Amino acid sequence: QSALTQPPSVSGSPGQSVTISCTGTSSDVGSYNWVSWYQQPPGTVPKLMIYDVSNRPSGVPDRFSGSKSGNTASLTISGLQAEDEADYYCTSFTSRNTWVFGGGTKLTVL
Amino acid sequence: QVQLVESGGGVVQPGGSLRLSCAVSGFTFSSHEMYWVRQAPGKGLEWVAFISRDGSRKYYADSVRGRFTISRDNSRNTLYLQMNSLRAEETAIYYCAKDLTGKYSFHYWGQGTLVTVSS
Prior knowledge:
B: globular
């Protein structure tokens, strides 16, 4: 199972918006709404930010939003803050009853 | 509050075995599906295994199928991962995670336990 494709890095200034893409195939992202996103600042444990493509768990700011079109899911962070600087990972359930992660995207807040 | 505490990591030679445990508290263990996810040093996340609430369904990553076994003891609120025939490239932090009820996502994570496969 190949990893989902994410850009290695993205950056933005405080207050701006950034979008991180996550491209899979018709066997994973394209077929299921079980796409989730995780935030991992350096040296910490991953934190669930988005589940089922576009839902936020309790406590996650509404600056974080998710969407999907075809085989590509996206995470958008609006009103960037310094504390958003972290690695972000997407994951999807697949037709083989497995989960596949993206390679991760490093977000830098300039 | 929700707590997941992994244990059992350590140094093992290539070809060796280890059994990881994940003791949970703060939620009804038997009502949640559970996962193991690993992260090699400086690398990304990799899903390893899944187990259903009653243990009847188990899924594995291709890379570990046939060598790793996930199990759970709902009476002891504990999740396990038996790892056999370990390889050097499986050196990683191993995390256990619980689902968000009824959703295929990794909601709460433990702090992880480090497994080092080296001669």
